[in-house]
Amino acid sequence: MSKQQQIQEVIASLREAVADISGAVVASPDGLVLASDLGESEAPRAGAMAATGSGLGRRIAETLAVGSVEEVMVKGDNGYVLVYRAGDKSVLGVVAKGRANLGLVNLEARAAAEKLEKILG
Amino acid sequence: MVWQRLKLVVSGPVGAGKTTFIQSLCDDSVVETDEVASEEIGKEKTTVAMDFGRAFFGDLELFVFGTPGQERFSFAWDVLMEGAFGLVFLVAGDRPASFPAARRMLDYFVSNFAVPVVVGVTRQDLPRVWASEDVAAYLRLSPKEVLGLNATSRADSRRALLRVLELWGVGVEGESAAEGTVPKAPQ
Amino acid sequence: MPVFGDLKDFPLVEVLPLLAFRRGALHVAMPESSNVVTLYFDQQAICGVRAENRLLDPLDALLVLRKLLAAKQGVFWFEQDTAPEGPAKLAWPVEQLLLELAKETDESVVVSQELPDPATRFRLTERGKQDADVSLSESAFLRQAQPFLEEGISVAELAKALQVSGSFLAVQLHRLRVGGFVEPARARDQKPASGPETGLLRKLWRALTGGQ
């Protein structure tokens, strides 16, 4: 399987593992989409936002000395957006429904991030 | 001590010199949010959220925010523009290939935000670079809204800031900001 | 301090207006030909076109100009004050020339970077309000869009109002813009400038200029 296919696989398994995740995007740290299941028109924006969220979160965590950033969460009244760093070469953005079990989402998303880190080196 | 505050935004396409300009203008060390660039942009890193720095003028504190340059980060531009009293928009004068994208970006800002915009044409130290009057003609701006500058120069960054004030009508004897000629800014 | 660039990023139709008030020579080198074409500017007109080592007659000059305006490959650079050797064979006002030739430009010449951002607001220019000189393909569109463009409207909002796709609209607006019928609105012109207190701005100004 090519790297591209492997990344797409990670997204597919993540969706399968957690029904309440409604979409995911994998992007480079500077916002270019590597893979996503969000649809052509949404993906570029989501990729850039994941990078912004991750980059900003990292800077905030460093500046205010709370350690290295593990996740950035935006909680809306209708769902969540979570962003995880997946090594140095990518970030993972996840959109989840309001009723999602955050513990489960975190567990599966972090595992997915680790897989991504291995794939991209 | 009560600080009086103003906010300035610095924007422009990738590689125009925004982060450098903010470093030249600010007194504090600048907080950056950059990441390794995946594309060929002529440098190693690129801003993904914003740059932030401060400059002090007596008890007046100037907050300076830099935006990312790529179009995909356009969602952040209006967030960053909130409450700004002016915009400095930088364009690399040695790269006319970037001008159409620059104009596209500039049109967005000029048509949505009712604050003065000063365009800074950077890289004036290079032998082959567009003059500010020609960039003004291309962008359909009056020459007083465009100036050449060196992003590494503190004096030049202050000149750009001064120009924003002049476009507000400050420091210009009996002239309104919208029309009339502006006396040449101190060189 | 020259004007220069590459046609793939910077079509000639965008360069000519910049040179309208200048005096000198615009050289264009295209990959298919070993010769350089030169356009001479003086007194707000093109006064000569040089190709294959001679100054062209009006008919040939027009053919060459059309080809140049459609070219997507090549580089150009401007030389201040250079004049044609020999008497001027042409006197074509730049603005009028652009109006004529711009009507003929093919849609495919539009570079995607030149298309406006969906949030950019447009309004009619003086000429757009009169709708004279609009080519047939654009007049119907302009007529539909006119009422919305009077006040100023964003590309995305206009697409919704006219029920057309955003990307189609972006191309139409770009063409109208090149033709001089619409322009990006200036927010400062439309809203009263309500900024920070003048006192604060004056304070900053004094600090920067060393007081007065």
Order of helices and strands of chain B: EHEEEEHEHEHEH
The largest beta-sheet of chain B arranges its strands as 4-5-1-6-7-8
Counted by DSSP, the helix tally of chain C is 9
**Class from helix and strand fractions of chain C:** alpha+beta
* Total beta strands of chain C: 10
Percent helix range of chain C: 40-55%
Gyration radius over CA of chain C: 21 Å
Shape of chain C: globular
Alpha carbon gap, first and last residue of chain B: 34 Å
Q: What proportion strand of chain C?
A: 15-25%
Largest interface comes to:
B-C, 45 and 47 residues
Here the CATH topology of chain B equals Rossmann fold
Spatial extent as radius of gyration of chain B? 16 Å
Count of discrete domains of chain B = 1
- What general form of chain B does the structure show? globular
Largest sheet of chain C: 7 strands, antiparallel
Brief summary:
Chain B has 187 residues and is an alpha/beta fold. Chain B has five helices and eight strands. A six-stranded mixed sheet of chain B has the order 4-5-1-6-7-8, sandwiched between helices. A two-stranded antiparallel sheet of chain B has the order 2-3.
What this model shows, in words?
The complex is a heterotrimer of chains A (121), B (187) and C (212). Chain A has helices spanning 3-17, 43-63, 102-120, and strands at 21-27, 33-36, 71-76, 79-86, 90-97. Chain A is an alpha+beta fold and 121 residues long. Chain A has a five-stranded antiparallel beta sheet with strand order 2-1-5-4-3. In chain A, helix 1 (3-17) packs antiparallel against helix 3 (102-120). The longest helix of chain A is centred in the middle third of the chain and has 21 residues, at 43-63. Chain A starts with a helix and ends with a helix. The model of chain A has no long low-confidence stretch (mean pLDDT 94). Chain B is of the alpha/beta class. Chain B has a single domain (4-167), classed as P-loop containing nucleotide triphosphate hydrolases (Rossmann fold), CATH 3.40.50.300. Chain B is 26% helix and 24% strand. Chain B has five helices and eight strands, in the order E-H-E-E-E-E-H-E-H-E-H-E-H. Chain B has helices at 18-25, 77-81, 99-112, 132-139, 154-167, and strands spanning 4-11, 34-36, 45-47, 51-57, 60-66, 86-92, 117-122, 146-148. By secondary structure, chain C is α+β, with helices and mostly antiparallel strands. Chain C has two domains: 4-104, no CATH class; 112-190, Arc Repressor Mutant, subunit A. Chain C contains nine helices and ten strands. Chain C has helices at 12-19, 58-70, 94-102, 126-130, 136-151, 155-162, 166-179, 187-190, 198-209; strands spanning 4-6, 24-29, 36-42, 45-51, 54-55, 75-80, 92-93, 121-124, 153-154, 182-184. In chain C, strand 2 (24-29) and strand 3 form a beta hairpin. In chain C, helix 6 crosses helix 7. Chain C is globular and about 60 Å long. The relative contact order of chain C is 0.13. The mean pLDDT of chain C is 84. Chains in contact: A-B, B-C.
